Amino acid sequence: DWTPQSFVEESVDTLKETLGNDKVVLGLSGGVDSSVAAMLLHKAIGKNLYCIFVNNGLLRKDEYTSVLQQYEGMGLNVKGVDASARFLDALASISDPELKRKAIGRTFIEVFDDEAHAIKDVKWLAQGTIYPDVIESVSATGGPSATIKSHHNVGGLPDFMKLKVVEPLKALFKDEVRRVGKSMGMDPNILGRHPFPGPGLAIRILGDITPEKVRILQDVDAIFIENLKSWNLYDKVWQAGAILLPVHSVGVMGDERTYEKCVALRAVESTDGMTADWVNLPYEFLQKTSNQIINKVKGVNRVVYDISSKPPATIEWE
Ligand code: XMP
């Protein structure tokens, strides 16, 4: 019988045997899979696991700092790399969604490769790949491994991809990954996180990306997500986020007319991201959230709620 405990024991034994005294590098995304993979490897080889957590400048508000602290608190040997400026440079004046993804994938590979080179004699690349990633190419989980898979490009493989690969969660489904994490005592806040796309807020800012737009969207998204948590709705939703639209509309503030930005809120129910339904959030929740966003986030004067299901719509807008 499969139990999380027996899985952890057996995996740790196998990993010890396979990896011996070798050094292993792993890219943490803040998501469930890479975090659980890291904990498992940490149990097996401790400080020989070198984790890298890259800030691409497109994470949720304050996530880089808070997630990095969480990882450190878990005892992981983790290096935070704030490459925000490099990513924003690479994205400057790009509006096409696929070009955004390419620019982010390419930059991630450059940053990660530099960091992997800095680890002397590293032998292995660990990835948080799970069973659904193995059987089909569409990954709802995102993060470094998905980025790497979809972006190994023309000029040959980057050096870190020539490393031997270790994927300790390759046989597990998402719910099993969560149970394994729980049995290792990991924080429920990490294990219960919604999926978040590898390109992050870049594909939720329609049109070109500027630091100002990132700031606005982070503020809007933070209000939405915090409210979902405080209304106990977060765990009932599969994925949620805000989208900054390339639309300005007229509003009124005091005696003045305004001409400012519009955001869309999106919350969906799903099992694997392949199909999804919009969530019937309480009107009162939407009312309160919309008021807070418009009152607190400068530059936004209109909020709409996306009531489209997948198919034919997609979860993201880009
Ligand atoms: P769509 O928009 O295709 O999204 O309905 C399905 C799931 O995939 C995520 N998604 C991505 N994840 N890189 C990722 O790592 C991407 O480029 C990407 N595009 C979409 C999306 O957040 C949802 O969970």
TrEMBL record:
Where does this protein hold ATP? 29-35
Q: Which residues form the GMPS ATP-PPase domain?
A: 2-193
- Identification of the protein by name: GMP synthase [glutamine-hydrolyzing]
Q: Name one GO cellular component term.
A: cytosol
Q: Name one GO molecular function term.
A: ATP binding
Q: Which organism is it from?
A: Subsaximicrobium wynnwilliamsii
Pathway the protein takes part in: Purine metabolism; GMP biosynthesis; GMP from XMP (L-Gln route): step 1/1
The main enzyme category here is: ligase
Alphabetized UniProt keyword annotations: ATP-binding, Glutamine amidotransferase, GMP biosynthesis, Ligase, Nucleotide-binding, Purine biosynthesis
UniProt keyword annotation of Nucleotide-binding present? yes
What Enzyme Commission number(s) does the record list for this chain? 6.3.5.2
Q: What does this protein do?
A: Catalyzes the synthesis of GMP from XMP.
Spell out the reaction equation it catalyses: XMP + L-glutamine + ATP + H2O = GMP + L-glutamate + AMP + diphosphate + 2 H(+)
What does the subunit comment say? Homodimer.
